[in-house]
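Protocol step 4 of 5: obtain the predicted structure for the target chain.
Materials: sequence only (see below). No template structures provided, no constraints applied. The aim of this step is simply to have a reference model before the mutagenesis design in step 5. Sequence pasted as it appears in the construct record:
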Amino acid sequence: MRAISILGSTGSIGRSTLGVVDAFPDELRVVGLAAGANVELLAEQIAKYRPELVSVRGEDDAHKLRALLSDAPEIVPGIEGACAVASMASADAVIAAIVGAAGIPPVYAALRKGKRVGIANKEVLVAAGDVMTRTARECGGEILPVDSEHNAVHQAIRCGTHPELQRIILTASGGPFLHRDLATFDAITIDAALAHPTWRMGNKISIDSATMMNKGLEVIEAHHLFDQPADRIDIVIHPQSIVHSMVEYVDGSIIAQLSTTDMKFPIQYALLYPERVAAPFARLDFAKIRTLEFLPVDPRRFPAVELAYAACRAGGSMPAVLNAANEIAVERFLAGELPFTSIVDIVKRVLDRHAGDVHPIASVDDALAWDRWARNEARGIDVAVRR
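Step 4 output (structure tokens):
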């Protein structure tokens, strides 16, 4: 039986992970849970799964959580608590689903302890990919992707060897604005941007899907996970979200991974790899699919994609700056401070300011320092909201 810790247990990936635990009670057990401020849901999870260690956002949340429990486990607040959950001795594997750069320290802590990390937080590898992959090699840790796209690539790569790999093809749904008139983009509302056509995700990830910044970040993540340069990682739009990604080999053969749009599939794969275990989740019915479409990315509609490619090529601190600026721009859009089109504009302006000052990322502290710089820059850019 494999013991697991979950970082971000009350979020969508965390809840899906617990669904996988429920499906495999003889193979998986929960020993650690880390969450933010949703202490009511966390209390329910604790009562059901009986973890040894729990983390919450702050001391006030810890007090609230203890008040909800008659038999509370050890509770450690803050980033120290998340790192403790990630590195606890009894955990064989960690699912990393804390959104944003906040996931960097606990993932690093897990890898330093030689853990298997199922990484659902793409920002960790975007901002500190060199550090994370080096730490995994040096400490005996393992990084397995939980993002459906990278998980699909991981599965497809098992069909060949690294020298045989020609290119990686990431698929993108195109989000809610694939066919929207470009002239109306300034009028996009928050509700419209959150209405993803195929996946149900958290607010930040949903906005990233609408701008397709998520796909640009995935290019950088794929670069680190699979040791491929940006020019060998392509993106195609696939609105049905059935083909989760593909790998092309040097002989022209393309291997694709398909499944229903359910995050339990990649989570199960990451937790039970290299075994494949019969699962109770919904299967594809090809007779009902009928059509699989593949379209090129329109750079006018999705300018965030090229910003991410440029950041990947620049390397060093540029991807960390890209990620942090995007997090703040999305945050400001969700707060009603700026129009949808200004999300990418803010990111570009911060990247332009950083273009002459790119530095290597040699440590977690380096990544977090550039993350802070970019956040401050993005917060300070004045954008008028169009009414």
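Step 4 remarks: The two ends are 57 Å apart (CA to CA). Residues 122-139 form the longest helix (18 residues).
Proceed to step 5.
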